[in-house]
Write a sequence for this structure.
């Protein structure tokens, strides 16, 4: 629906084409809340959202998701949108740079996979 990811100059532009970039929404009712713009094709956001729900089952992603959810006052939808936004950047990296998809690389923190990778690199 978005064309070839290599046609975009960066991952952020690809994410913006999906309608997943953030925009501040302010009015009399809402004050300075960030929302996604939803300007791209909705079917792309739908399937990425489903992929984000599946990704939260991974322990490395789950830790970040739970921490974000707790920070936002137990509102899980915002945390799930955060995972979706990160997956959009991962899709770009996989398609353009040919990097393998590794969920632990998307989220900050010290995961078991990251520690084992660092041990292997240190031993080499």
């Amino acid at each position: 629906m978005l064309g070839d990811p290599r046609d975009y100059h960066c991952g952020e532009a690809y994410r913006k084409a999906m309608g997943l970039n953030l925009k501040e929404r302010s009015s009399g009712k809402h004050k300075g809340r960030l929302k996604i713009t939803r300007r791209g094709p909705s079917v792309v956001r739908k399937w990425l959202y489903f992929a984000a729900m599946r990704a939260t089952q991974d322990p490395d992603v789950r830790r970040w998701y739970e921490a974000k959810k707790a920070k936002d006052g137990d509102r899980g939808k915002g945390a799930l949108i955060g995972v979706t936004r990160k997956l959009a950047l991962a899709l770009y990296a996989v398609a353009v740079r040919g990097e393998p998809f590794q969920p632990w690389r998307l989220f900050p923190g010290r995961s078991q996979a990251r520690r084992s990778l660092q041990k292997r690199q240190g031993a080499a």
